[in-house]
Amino acid sequence: MLELESHVKLQHFVTVKELHDDQVRALIERAIYFKNGGAIPQFEQPVYVVNMFFENSTRTHCSFEMAERKLGLQIIPFDPAASSVKKGETLYDTLLSLNAIGVNLAIMRHQENEYYKKLIELEPMQKLAIGVVNAGDGSGQHPSQSLLDMMTIYEQFGTFKNIKVAIIGDLSNSRVARSNMQLLKKLGAQVFFAGPSYWYSKEFEEYGEYLEVDKLITQVDVVMLLRVQHERHTKETGFSAVQYHEQYGLTLERYGKMKKDAIIMHPGPINRGVEIASELVEAPKSRFVKQMQNGVYMRMAMLEAVIAGRHLGGL
Description:
Structural class: alpha/beta
Strand content: 5-15%
Largest sheet: 5 strands, parallel
Strand order of the largest sheet: 7-6-5-8-9
Number of domains: 2
Helix content: 25-40%
Oligomer: single chain
Mean pLDDT: 92
Number of strands: 9
Number of helices: 10
CATH topology of the largest domain: Rossmann fold
Low-confidence stretches: 1-6
Distance between the termini: 26 Å
């Protein structure tokens, strides 16, 4: 097992870029500890949290809420469609109001890349006394998904060193791809990319090599599929789900060529018959369900890190 020298303490949790590898390992260890029935911290004072999802979400939203409930946090309901943001209120002023009534943490998903910079990189006299946890920003970062993915890989292989990971699909629009390539490289894994060339750009070259799917499928340890984000391709026409599946998807034939101990990962939601054959979603090599299970425990670890960093709950 990984050695945990001390709990991670953070003011905010908005990106994986600034995490050190020892912090990532500590978060993985803490999440595994929670998963194995480890004692949950008992806060001496209530911690109030609000979930602000300005983009649709099932897994991430419900996973965060489950993590919050397991930690005993007090959840304040928030509906973006019925909020003052619809009247033109800025995110800063919304958080200012929530903070004023006692909210300590804001879990936020937003369509704008790096929306959080406007909230946490302000002049000293304007800084909010509220912790921001990024649940996904545009096509930028997805810290919690990335960390639960790292946890899932570690549980499977016990190491990251020289583990070969293929990230396949809608690269240009994927916050999962960006977060994961950064952490995987930091932790010592070998990263490769595949998918339509028009969804690949030079920003990925720093992290790994771009190859054809069929050249990768037989040699990698992790086949990490990305959802085709139809909602971000509104200007594109002529997309064929059948053609995409044949050229870039995990077909039954490709599944049969995978290494014996290789695993399949997908952040969800899955487009069955596009990124992956429907029969393979719950196949023996698939870790799709385990990723979702791990997400609760990793988000518990992340929330605890911000609670500790901000000295909330009497910590």
